[in-house]
Automatic annotation (TrEMBL):
Residues 13-165 form the Flavin reductase like domain. InterPro entries: Flavin_Rdtase-like_dom, Flavoredoxin, Split_barrel_FMN-bd. The lineage of its organism: Bacteria, Pseudomonadati, Pseudomonadota, Betaproteobacteria, Burkholderiales. This is Flavin reductase like domain-containing protein. It comes from the Bacteria. It holds the Pfam family Flavin_Reduct. Its cofactor is FMN. Belongs to the flavoredoxin family. Keywords: Flavoprotein.
Length: 178
């Protein structure tokens, strides 16, 4: 087998760990939706998620100020809205209105859920030690919702530069994990 050199600037497309999520934030009466694919599970109970949010994003300012967000998990049917949200700026566009997304009020939060997403994870920032250096936030999921009608969600996985992969066939193998 012959392998060839691969550009380091494209490595993230190989390692993207999970589905693209739509992070919703709210600050000073303004809500925003931002596609996020740079995230990873850190712990299971309580669920901790690490994520990178660019310091140039409107969501970065909101997340830093309010320390809360919702990770909304879309399916492939929302691919156009995901890309549209990523190609616009939250300080200039109401992304809920522009892309036909429905905000849903969550208890005890200013940050809305997105109705069209099959799962919604309410989060609070619990660790910011790596924010100044890497823009890396640690979030604790403190409440979660799932659409029971969505049995086999076809999630989007970002491969870089406008390329996505859709989660495919489900396989089940023996596991000793509970």
């Amino acid at each position: 087998m012959t392998k060839r050199s691969y550009p380091l600037s494209k490595v993230y497309g190989i390692l993207e760990p999970g589905p693209v999520v739509l992070m919703t934030t709210a600050h000073k009466g303004k809500v925003n939706v931002m596609p996020l694919s740079w995230h990873t599970m850190i712990e299971f109970e309580p669920p901790l998620v690490g994520c990178v949010v660019s310091g140039n994003d409107f969501s970065f300012k909101a997340l830093t100020a309010t320390r809360q967000c919702v990770l909304n998990v879309p399916t492939a049917e929302l691919a156009a809205q995901v890309v549209g949200c990523g190609n616009t700026h939250g300080d200039q566009v109401d992304k809920f209105e522009a892309f036909g997304l429905t905000p849903v009020k969550a208890d005890d939060m200013e940050v809305p859920l997105i109705a069209q997403c099959y799962a919604n994870l309410a989060c609070r920032v619990v660790d910011t030690r790596l924010v100044n250096r890497y823009n890396f936030f640690v979030l604790e999921v403190f409440k979660a919702w799932l659409d029971p009608a969505c049995k086999n969600p076809q999630t989007l996985h970002h491969r870089g530069r406008g390329v996505f992969m859709v989660a495919g066939e489900v396989i089940r193998l023996p596991s000793k994990m509970k």
